[in-house]
Amino acid sequence: MLKNKQDAFGQALYDFHKGGRPRVAFERHDGYIDCSENMAHYFARYRDWPGDEKMAMRFVKGRVLDIGCGPGRHAVHLQERGYDVVGIDNSRLAVKVCRLRGLRRAKVMSATQVSSGRIHVLGGRFDTVLMLGNNFGLFGSFTRAKWMLRRFRGVTNPDARILTSTLDPYDTDRPEHLAYHRYNRRLGRMGGQVRIRARYRWFASPWFDYLFVSRAELRQILDGTGWELRKTLDGPDNRYIAIIQRR
Amino acid sequence: MLKNKQDAFGQALYDFHKGGRPRVAFERHDGYIDCSENMAHYFARYRDWPGDEKMAMRFVKGRVLDIGCGPGRHAVHLQERGYDVVGIDNSRLAVKVCRLRGLRRAKVMSATQVSSGRIHVLGGRFDTVLMLGNNFGLFGSFTRAKWMLRRFRGVTNPDARILTSTLDPYDTDRPEHLAYHRYNRRLGRMGGQVRIRARYRWFASPWFDYLFVSRAELRQILDGTGWELRKTLDGPDNRYIAIIQRR
């Protein structure tokens, strides 16, 4: 769980919910910085979602675990559609916003804490794990992704699926992006393993790795974890949603 | 003059001019960070200026030096109204944008380079010095402000004036701002002496001091420099424009 001073993103989500128009700065470890659009995107209603996300909702079934649920864009929608949804986020303020927006089951928990030992806290096993909004990134690295995927078997039912989105980092011809991939690989990291931190006013998250993968890299990660790639949905630009099936 | 890699603000101005919608992050030395609105404000046409800036234009006379002219919001307007205007900025790209927007006399020069030794480069002495858009900040510190003001006598005619805007930093009840003033004073700085740097993509300016002063502090700074406060124009929030007259 993030400490209050670290919860830059959650604080911005909370301020947006309260009517502010905050912007978060994302700082990358090579010195690149980017200011977010305002947070409206994270609060978008279903009718305003991009087509691939709407399409992904057709693959939702049974009990749903939304990992890194933020202010609950997907979780609140699915709850309204009658699903039994649990949203988790390592940001206390994101979870607070979820509850203010009506999500009945929202917990402060990080993606790495999801394991069979927590089933009682999570209210049982799941049929669908959501990691949309580029939340494939929460897998962090090649090794950690494999470790987490194996643990996810322990909190899911036999026919469960993971719905997750990422960007193919190599689907670019911009030299500065290609240079960043080389820089990462020289450090023994995956090309799309982006080390960033979020900053907002005085709040600064710890540095963390957020992972973007190509379809080929995704298959390598899934290999041997008990999960397999069923289908991908193409999104705008270089984004795709992966439908991952438990074997 | 800023090196290319340091010209974060100029790069963003240039990208805006080219149709992008960049945002600059301003990082303060106590860890606070703020993302700018997009740059449209710096390109606003006269009809869209705030009332106090329009009012300030009535005090313009003779040859005009616009210090820290940015993309030329004021300089281009005054040139269109027939004034002989020279714009200077320490950003090569800001000056480039000025020229692209039609400003005939734009030079890469920092505020601290303005002195009688540069009169030949500047084409003669001035009757009006503009430092609007909070460009009082370019005075940097108490000591440097006095030093620069004395030097400004050497590039101005006897009846010259300086039109400059700042924010009264003490006109606030927000505890985080009051804490920052105390923090600054503990370091032997003025309360409103803000140490910041601009960051945009990979560009990062050097850290620099940007000064905000109350009216009382302004009078202390002017004392003994050969300039006196003639009038202030109240702006929105805690901003005011100072009309400063050469004695």
Keywords:
homodimer, 247 residues, seven-stranded mixed beta sheet, 12 strands, 28% helix
Question: What is the secondary structure topology, with strand pairs?
Answer:
Two copies of one chain form a homodimer.
Chain A: H1 8-17, E1 25-28, E2 33-35, H2 51-56, E3 64-67, H3 73-80, E4 85-89, H4 92-100, E5 106-108, H5 119-122, E6 126-131, H6 142-153, E7 156-167, H7 175-186, E8 193-200, E9 203-204, E10 208-211, H8 215-222, E11 227-234, E12 239-246
Parallel strand pairs in A: 3-4, 3-6, 4-5, 6-7
Antiparallel strand pairs in A: 1-2, 1-8, 7-12, 8-9, 8-10, 11-12
Helix pairs in contact in A: 1-4
Question: Could you characterize the architecture of this molecule?
Answer:
The structure is a homodimer of 247-residue chains. With 247 residues, chain A is of the alpha/beta class. Chain A has one domain (4-16, 28-246): Rossmann fold (3-Layer(aba) Sandwich). Helices cover 28% and strands 27% of the residues of chain A. The first copy, chain A, has helices at 8-17, 51-56, 73-80, 92-100, 119-122, 142-153, 175-186, 215-222, and strands spanning 25-28, 33-35, 64-67, 85-89, 106-108, 126-131, 156-167, 193-200, 203-204, 208-211, 227-234, 239-246. A seven-stranded mixed beta sheet of chain A has the order 5-4-3-6-7-12-11, sandwiched between helices. The longest helix of chain A is centred in the middle third of the chain and has 12 residues, at 142-153. Chains A and B meet through strand 2 of A and strand 2 of B.
